């Protein structure tokens, strides 16, 4: 599930301090296609010859997560759950079971604004392997009957998952890329890297440490209306930035534009929101929360945001809003910046 775009303002090697250019730290960056997007890693390390191997190990971990959690690959463990859990309890390996259990906690805490059971909805609206279409009333009703956390029965002791009825489908596209970014960051840490930037198609970015001589990695968030412009720049250090956006997958029907980001509770695409950017402690957290905040919008988000101290949220709406934080005394900031015909 595409979620939005960021523009990376990465620090080029030539901009590093003199001691880094002399060889104490070396710069390396490359990309790999995985999980239906381009993953990019930029890093600094003391051993120039070893950096390509380190990055390949991190990318291999992303590929492993894709094989584990893809609902596009028929032979993935997730696809097996979707095929069989409506008939019987399916044994699930611990990593995937724990990840799904964590995702379900985001569902419960957001009152269903974020929900990994949206698989049938995504298919009904044509966003599974497609750019979208208007479903019939019958298709939509059928899909809504199998959406919701109550349909997923987890047995923590046996590590099994069962659905309470056939037709339920899990879709981890709203959170798995952030998890893969976190896992890649873990590989880099284990290999002695303390300065790196990992991006999953620009929709989720994690900054490990900071570039040489800098306090953090500068990231520019793309303007959701004019993609040639930057809406805001943030600095990341040991933190993630995730964006949910409506511009990447959408279609128009009878003069109304429908994007791929669903409100699981209504069974319909969210209207009126352009994008939401979330600063969080991890890619996994940011990936789940940007969808939840996108669905809740700036009016209903302040109450939910209080559950996440330290998380910051930036809304981009189709209409201007007043620039002020919500939740006085809270560590969570919900920012609005008035602009003509949009808010940031």
What does this structure look like?
It is globular, with a radius of gyration of 20 Å. It has an 8-stranded mixed sheet, covered by helices on one side. The protein has a 3-stranded antiparallel sheet with strand order 1-9-10, with no helix packed on it. It has helices spanning 18-21, 51-69, 77-84, 94-109, 119-124, 137-144, 176-190, 283-305; strands at residues 6-8, 26-34, 37-45, 90-91, 152-155, 160-163, 195-200, 204-208, 217-222, 230-236, 239-245, 250-253, 256-259, 262-263, 268-269, 273-280, 312-317, 333-335, 338-339, 342-343. It is of the alpha+beta class and 344 residues long. Helix 2 (51-69) runs antiparallel to helix 7 and helix 7 (176-190) crosses helix 8. Strand 9 (217-222) and strand 10 (230-236) form a beta hairpin.
Strand fraction equals 25-35%
Distance between the termini: 23 Å
What integer value in Å does the Rg equal? 20 Å
Number of strands: 20
- Give average pLDDT, whole number: 87
Unreliable stretches (pLDDT < 50, length at least 5) are 1-5, 7-22, 320-334, 336-344
**Biggest beta sheet attributes:** 8 strands, mixed
């Amino acid at each position: 599930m595409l979620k939005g775009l960021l523009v990376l303002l990465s620090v080029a090697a030539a901009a590093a301090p003199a001691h880094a250019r002399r060889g104490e730290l070396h710069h390396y960056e490359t990309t790999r296609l995985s999980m239906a997007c381009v993953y990019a890693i930029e890093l600094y390390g003391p051993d120039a010859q070893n950096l390509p191997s380190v990055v390949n190990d991190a990318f291999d971990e992303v590929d492993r997560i894709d094989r584990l959690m893809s609902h596009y690959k028929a032979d993935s463990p997730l696809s097996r759950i979707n095929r069989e859990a409506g008939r019987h309890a399916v044994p699930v390996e611990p990593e995937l079971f724990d990840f799904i259990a964590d995702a379900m906690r985001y569902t419960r805490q957001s009152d269903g604004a974020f929900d990994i059971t949206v698989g049938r909805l995504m298919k009904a609206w044509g966003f599974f392997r497609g750019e979208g279409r208007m479903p019939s009333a019958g298709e939509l009703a059928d899909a809504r009957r199998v959406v919701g956390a109550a349909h997923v029965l987890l047995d923590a002791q046996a590590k099994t998952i069962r659905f309470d009825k056939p037709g339920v489908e899990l879709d981890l596209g709203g959170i798995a890329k952030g998890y893969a970014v976190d896992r890649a960051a873990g590989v880099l840490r284990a290999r002695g890297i303390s300065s790196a930037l990992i991006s999953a198609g620009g929709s989720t970015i994690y900054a490990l440490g900071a570039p040489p001589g800098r306090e953090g990695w500068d990231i520019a968030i793309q303007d959701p209306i004019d993609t040639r412009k930057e809406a805001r720049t943030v600095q990341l250090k040991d933190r993630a930035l995730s964006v949910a956006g409506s511009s990447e997958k959408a279609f128009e029907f009878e003069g109304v534009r429908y994007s791929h980001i669903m409100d699981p509770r209504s069974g319909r695409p969210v209207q009126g929101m352009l994008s939401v950017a979330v600063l969080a402690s991890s890619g996994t957290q940011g990936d789940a929360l940007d969808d939840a905040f996108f669905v809740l919008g700036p009016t209903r988000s302040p109450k939910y945001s209080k559950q996440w101290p330290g998380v910051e949220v930036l809304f981009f709406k189709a209409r201007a809003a007043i620039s002020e934080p919500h939740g006085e005394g809270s560590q969570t900031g919900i920012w609005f910046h008035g602009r003509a015909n949009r808010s940031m």
